[in-house]
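Researcher: Let's walk through a ligand-bound prediction step by step. First, I give you the protein sequence. Second, the SMILES string for adenosine monophosphate. Third, you return the three-dimensional complex as structure tokens. Ready?
Model: Ready.
Researcher: Here are steps one and two:
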Amino acid sequence: MRIAVAYKWAPNPQDALVGSDGSVDWRHAKAGVSEYDPVAIALGRSLADASGAELVGLSVGGPDVASPMAKKSALARGLDRAVVVADASLQGLGATETALLLAALVEKIGDVDVVLTGDSSIDEGSRMVPTVLAGALGWPALTDVRSVSGTAGDLSVERNHRGGSQVLRLTGPAVLAAAVDAVVPGVPGVRDILAAGKKPVEEVALTALVRRELGSSVERVRIAGPEVRDRKRRMIEGSDAAVAAHEIVAALRADGVI
Amino acid sequence: MSATYILVAGDARIGNLVATAVGTSITAVVVGDRGVAEAVAASGVEKVVWLGDPGATPLEAFAGQVAALTAAARPDLVLAPSRPADLVLAGAVAARLSAPVYTMASAVRVADGAVEIDRSVFGGIARETLRIHGPVVVIGDGGEVGTDGGAPIEEVTGAPATTISVIETLPPEHAPVDLSKARRIVSTGRGLKDQGDLSITARLGEALDAELACSRPLAEGVGWFRRDRYVGVTGQKVTPDLYVAVGISGQLQHVVGARGARVIVVINSDEKCPYFGEADYCVVGDLYELVPALTAALTEAN
Ligand SMILES: Cc1cc2nc3c(=O)[nH]c(=O)nc-3n(C[C@H](O)[C@H](O)[C@H](O)COP(=O)(O)OP(=O)(O)OC[C@H]3O[C@@H](n4cnc5c(N)ncnc54)[C@H](O)[C@@H]3O)c2cc1C
Ligand SMILES: Nc1ncnc2c1ncn2[C@@H]1O[C@H](COP(=O)(O)O)[C@@H](O)[C@H]1O
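Model: Step three, the predicted complex:
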């Protein structure tokens, strides 16, 4: 059995600088394995260990996806190997194009029984990559997955479902998006990081993939900064809690919200 | 006239999407029981294509059929509510049409053979307007059940994917909470050290007659709150008169969920916490002292 985990190498938008014209400067935002993807890797690791499967990481994006730093960070979290597509033209790709590329990658490496993904990516956060990927592969998708067990062709999946939960059986391949708190992934130690340096990473050239193009043309007609209200931003010193509390109460009274 | 397809998985609350597509010819593709198809038919769409009673089959198993019949109709615009099973249908449709898909759209306009959408990008750090020629899938807030007319229901049957079956379903333990209509909210973050300390913010909530909410890690992480009580880009969007954020740092993904609040009070011991940049009252100090003091001051004032 072969398990694939799609992970994204992405910066946190919190650290980007946004101009008043809406231009986004990412230079100060350091990329990392996207916040929730370590959960998918950890779920995949347990399933692989229990079933004797191989765990392959898949990632597509700009050139830094193939940087030593990106490879090590991902592999140190427990992948057996990684297959990446890194190309300047793939920087900032939308969900559909990303998913179509990942589907081409899954087809290229072959024999994949299940693809695990994170819940949502830290920068785009659309939650659509796993579902479009499943559509492109013609596989079912399940999201908010809490646990997976079993072997290829007979998997048991538990997921959050309408405020409760549900246990499902899968007898074919599927794409499973992990719930953000499915497991608490461990922080890689020095040994994991050293071991990661020795694990194989394959770089697949964009031209080596049978790639489906987007069926629509997209033109950006306007960008702008976020729509945020002007806030008062009044500082209230809280070292004397009682004084601060009375100041807050008076202010909220004046604002008519209490 | 442009053609819009609205995808529905088991929940008829699509009022907002119908309003978005007004002026186009709207077909709803419904997966779910007959009651859902009937409610959708009475919500302002022109036609309902219903995939028949799903029985015990999970709704996601119908994604392939939904994609096939939607793609065959070559709609200009495909809309789906932002709910888990609907996203699976939308993903299958986007894949089949090789159509771009956008979330977090605040407005959608269909004009001159193109679709224009306004959306916030990267979790809310900026906004953009896109013009798309060719099919596009847009995910939006479903809103409430619409009430308008009675569209015909066409039943199509076909075999869903049979590789996926439900073994067991456990219902929710509580009725869902809707924070979107709350007038006042006290929201707790990771600044709280211990579950037992929740009584501190709960008392403030009582004094303010407020609903209780939290940041995501407190719901999906330590599990001190139920999942439907966290605010943010993935959580609930709230628009209260008053939002009091206690021990919440103000990461973008949280902040965007409460940007609609009229007045925001942030209590945080770190004077550099990002939330102070988007607050009306930035209270610098220890929540363990400030929250009980505020509760007392409110009780006294009442
Ligand atoms: C794709 C994606 C989607 C996400 N969606 C959401 C979402 O919808 N909602 C959401 O909330 N998060 C979401 N997150 C998570 C988000 O990025 C943050 O991790 C989270 O909001 C942080 O929660 P917090 O502020 O409670 O914790 P922290 O960031 O740890 O902040 C704790 C704060 O408490 C303060 N503090 C500590 N002790 C005290 C004290 N004694 N008195 C006063 N203050 C104190 C600290 O100074 C600090 O500012 C998402 C993340 C991703 C990647
Ligand atoms: N460029 C990418 N490469 C690999 N996996 C990705 C990529 N983008 C998104 N994913 C996966 O899809 C999940 C959801 O991402 P998103 O749809 O962007 O919110 C992420 O948690 C990843 O597991």
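Researcher: And what stands out?
Model: Chain B has two domains: 3-155, 179-301. Chain B touches chain A through 102 residues (CB under 8 Å).
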